[in-house]
Every structure is written in structure tokens, then in C-alpha cells.
């Protein structure tokens, strides 16, 4: 039986030992950094009570207890698997468990998305962007934040990209795009009606359409020239927050930015260094 299970069961514990066990269960991560005197003070008990509790669960003393508890918690964090990306944590999870579960969700999203990207696919996208006269970015809701960050990065290497902030603006901008222009659509679900309408307009005008989405068979994807895939992990509707999709989309956009940067590496590097030198006096 694990230490936590024994403390939870509380067999043969007296009143002060039960109170001590309850504190340890609630604060198991922070207890690892507490001395025996600090723990005694925090639980209004004594060092002898702590040692007695340790021995009741089969340990030599407090030092042995912390070593075993640390190993047990580490194994527990390593064993956390199959985390639901829509609801990755519960009200019973500790802060450390929440952090570990979010790490697992994001790691899985990044790993799976990375496996979907190919060198040829990225080269094709980079070529289409550089050959276009205008580049537009179209995104709504949560994806707009990622789009704004991407536009900001492009601006810093003197690559202009239009990003409309209003739905009606998006439609007018799409209507102005031609076969000489390129549009980057961002829709994790691939089911956005607004984005689908934009894709129809862009397709009608002959503009190149690059879509970042998790559904390569969606209506939007089928109207696109190229699909930059994101791992399909989340529900399209109910979730606590778009943890997996947001990190996946930003990974794709950051990768694309880096590929665009490398395509003119020397010029972009000189431009960034010159800009940093220009703005250096603005920082304390």
C-alpha cells in the first residue's frame, strides 16, 4: 500500500495523527520542502507525533518518509496518462498534478502536430507566400490571438500581412484578393461558417488558400490549395479551454514564421539586429 493510501485510510491513527495525515495529503508537494520542525508548527503537533506516524506506516522516520513520498509522487506524475484534452483536470487534482496534466496535453499536441508536418509541405507554403503580391490572415475567436502574434512576427522581418479585426472587414478584404494573392485561414475545427464563406470568396477569385486546421476533410480544407495540419485532439464544442488546439496552432505558425525567416536568413538577421539597435534606447 502506498504512503498516500495509508495516510488516507488512517488505520490505528489517534486524533493528532489523523490531523497530521490530513495536512500531508492536502499539501503533499510542499511537505517535501518542510523540515520536521516546520511541519510540526504548521500542523500544531510535535516532532515526536510526526516520527510516530512515520513508524506506524512502516517507515524509519521523517527523512525516510520524505524520500519515499518524493519517489511515490514522481511515479504518480509519470503514470498520469490518457489525459482528456477537453477536461484535463478535476477539482480533486493538486496544483502540481494540474501542471503535469497540462504539460502532457501540450506535449501530445506538439508531438502529434510535428508528425503531420513535412518538409515538402512547408516549402510549398513558403514558396506560395513569397510569390504572392498580398498576404492576408483570416481568423476568428481564440485563433485570432494566435494570428495576431504571427502577424507581429512577420512585421518584424518586414513581411506585411493583413489581418482584419471585424467579420465584415474580412469579407471585403477577401473580395479584394486575386490569383496573385495568398490567404492564410485558421480554423481548428474547419467548421466555421464565417471562415467557409471567406474560403468561397477567395476560391472564386482564384487566390491561393492555405488553411491551418485539424480536419483535412472539412469543407474549408477542401476549398484550400494547401492544408497545414494540426493534431485533432479536442472537441469542437465543449471544453475548459483550447489548451491543445492553441498550442498546436501556435506551433504551426511559429514553424512557418521560422521557415520564412530562414528563406532570407541573412537579410532578416540584419534587419532584426538593426531594429534592436534602433530600439535599444527605449529600454531601461
UniProtKB/TrEMBL annotation:
Coiled coil segments of this chain: none
Q: Which residues form the SIS domain?
A: 125-266
Domain HTH rpiR-type spans what residues? 1-76
Q: Which CDD domains match?
A: SIS_RpiR
Keywords, in A-Z order: DNA-binding, Transcription, Transcription regulation
Q: Which InterPro entries match?
A: Homeodomain-like_sf, HTH_RpiR, RpiR-like, RpiR-like_SIS, SIS_dom, SIS_dom_sf, WH-like_DNA-bd_sf
Matching Pfam families, A to Z? Answer: HTH_6, SIS
Task: Note the superkingdom of the native organism.
Answer: Bacteria
Which SUPFAM superfamilies does the record match to this protein? Homeodomain-like, SIS domain
Put simply, this protein is called MurR/RpiR family transcriptional regulator
Q: Which organism does this sequence originate in?
A: Companilactobacillus huachuanensis
Amino acid at each position: 500500500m502506498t504512503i498516500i493510501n495509508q495516510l488516507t485510510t488512517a488505520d490505528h491513527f489517534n486524533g493528532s495523527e489523523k490531523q497530521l495525515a490530513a495536512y500531508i495529503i492536502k499539501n503533499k508537494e510542499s511537505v517535501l520542502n518542510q523540515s520536521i520542525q516546520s511541519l510540526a508548527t504548521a500542523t500544531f503537533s510535535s516532532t515526536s507525533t510526526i516520527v510516530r506516524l512515520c513508524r506506524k506506516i512502516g517507515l524509519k522516520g521523517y527523512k525516510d518518509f520524505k524520500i519515499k513520498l518524493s519517489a511515490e509522487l514522481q511515479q504518480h506524475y509519470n503514470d498520469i496518462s490518457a489525459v482528456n484534452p477537453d477536461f484535463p483536470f478535476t477539482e480533486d487534482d493538486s496544483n502540481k498534478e494540474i501542471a503535469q496534466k497540462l504539460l502532457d496535453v501540450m506535449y501530445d499536441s506538439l508531438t502529434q502536430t510535428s508528425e503531420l508536418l513535412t518538409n515538402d509541405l512547408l516549402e510549398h507554403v513558403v514558396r506560395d507566400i513569397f510569390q504572392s503580391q498580398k498576404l492576408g490572415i483570416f481568423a476568428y475567436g481564440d485563433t485570432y490571438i494566435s494570428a495576431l502574434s504571427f502577424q507581429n512576427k512577420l512585421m518584424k522581418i518586414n513581411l506585411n500581412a493583413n489581418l482584419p479585426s471585424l467579420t465584415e472587414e474580412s469579407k471585403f478584404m477577401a473580395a479584394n484578393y486575386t490569383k496573385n494573392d495568398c490567404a492564410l485561414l485558421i480554423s481548428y475545427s474547419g467548421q466555421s461558417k464565417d471562415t467557409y464563406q471567406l474560403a468561397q470568396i477567395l476560391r472564386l477569385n482564384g487566390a491561393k488558400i492555405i488553411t491551418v486546421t485539424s480536419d483535412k476533410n472539412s469543407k474549408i480544407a477542401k476549398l484550400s490549395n494547401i492544408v497545414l495540419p494540426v493534431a485533432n485532439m479536442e472537441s469542437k464544442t465543449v471544453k475548459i479551454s483550447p489548451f491543445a488546439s492553441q498550442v498546436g496552432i501556435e506551433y504551426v505558425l511559429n514553424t512557418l514564421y521560422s521557415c520564412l525567416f530562414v528563406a532570407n536568413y541573412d537579410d532578416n538577421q540584419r534587419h532584426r539586429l538593426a531594429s534592436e539597435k534602433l530600439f535599444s534606447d527605449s529600454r531601461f
